[in-house]
Amino acid sequence: MTQVTRLPRALRPFASGQYRLLIVALASSLLSAGAWIVAAVWQVVELGGSPVDLSFVAVGSSLGLVLAVLFGGVAADRIPQRRILFTVEVVRGAGFAVAAALAFGGIIEVWHIAVIAFVLGVADGFFYPAYSAWLPAILPDEQLLAANGVEGVLRPSVMNAAGPALASALIAVHSPALAFAVVAGLQIIAAGVLRMMRLTAVRRDLDEATVHPFRQTFIDLRGGFVYLLQTKWLLATLVFGIVLVFLIMGPIEVLLPFAVKDQTGGGAGAFALALAAFGVGGAAGSLAVASIKVPRRYLTLMILAWGFGCAPLAILGATNLLWVMIVALFVVGFLFSAAQVLWGTLLQRRVPPAMLGRVSSLDFFVSLALMPVSMAAAGPVGEAIGLMPAFLIAGLVPPVLALATLALARLGKDELAHPLDAEMDPTTVTGAEAAAGFEPPVDEAASPPEQ
């Protein structure tokens, strides 16, 4: 038994020095992202901004992300991912530094924040595909599930909890300007750590350029779409995911505050508890999946967890007890994030390395596409039919869709034909990595057996 295999499954990725560096960079980046959200909002408030101004800033960030993410996927398949992530962190740090300078100088305005938010959104559009595509080049296949679980724990705990708490403390001590300066410093840490990491080769054969790079970008984009349309398990899961996002995100983001207020009599604190339950459940679900092997029926369990994990939402429109809402949202968060960790691992294990950046960006893009539509539709639907029917739809339709997806796409047969649960020697390079001539990093070599 090696030193790596003696570790709990969720901790095995940390045996890699490269992964430890990546997680430090990711944690710094997530902490700064969470702090930025609160600092930017409070800066708008201090400037006397209205809800329209806040929407202006939020739209800037979302627009930048949507416009960039597909091109970020193309870049992740053509440029070493470490260079992309390093550049992203430098750009984000520069944006935060500009915000800090403007705020300390007393000349910052709402439009400045909106422009910076747009730039940050563009940077995020390049970050996510590059991170997803780089992870399989750093870790062996059997550790990807644990690594994705670690990320699933970090996002709610660091970005949604620690980041806002840090910003609130800094604003209380001084002002949003101090928060902007600190998050710029966090980006310097993230960029510095990434700079320390080894550069890994792009996991595809790049042909000699015969067309203009601008045209080649769209050729690569088309290749990603063609692969998506020709791969049944991928297409079926993404279509299911699009409909799922449309059905549940609006009720959670828009209708839940009114359910808490009207049915339980709670205020902002009660709503915060409900959202916290969703986040804590998500972290717990991610950690639970990180601690196990990839299940044999990975597609079936993933689709069922997503579909039936929404069922507790049906309770939210009917109960007047806050604790019932909290339990329901914890369960939804647990199962939803557990399935999300499986999904990220599935992409990294089954999508060809040459396509992984583009497919990851397509996944992210379609997830974003209907989210604003869902939130825009939730309000009118809730007013037209009431909260109870709206939450019933959000809770009861997804399980039916899950069963239909499994049956129509024959995902059960597909997962049996493509097992992912085989244990592998972490020092053995196989599959796409072998074809590309990769070798395991020095710090990932197995320790000699004990005498």
Task: From the structure above, extract its key features.
mainly alpha, 451 residues, Growth Hormone, Chain: A, 2 domains
Write a concise synopsis of the structure shown.
Keywords: Cell membrane, Membrane, Transmembrane, Transmembrane helix, Transport. With 451 residues, the protein is mainly α.
User: How do the helices and strands follow one another from N- to C-terminus?
Assistant: HHHHHHHHHHHHHHHHHH
Low-confidence stretches: 423-451
Distance between the termini: 11 Å
What structural class results from the helix and strand content? mainly alpha
CATH architecture call of the largest domain: Up-down Bundle
Integer average pLDDT: 82
Fraction of residues in β-strands: under 5%
> What does the largest sheet look like?
none
CATH topology of the largest domain: Growth Hormone, Chain: A
CATH superfamily of the largest domain: MFS general substrate transporter like domains
Globally, the shape reads globular
Characterize the quaternary organization of these chains: single chain
In total, the number of domains comes to 2
**Rg over CA atoms:** 22 Å
How many beta-strand runs? 0
Number of helices: 18
Percent helix range = over 70%
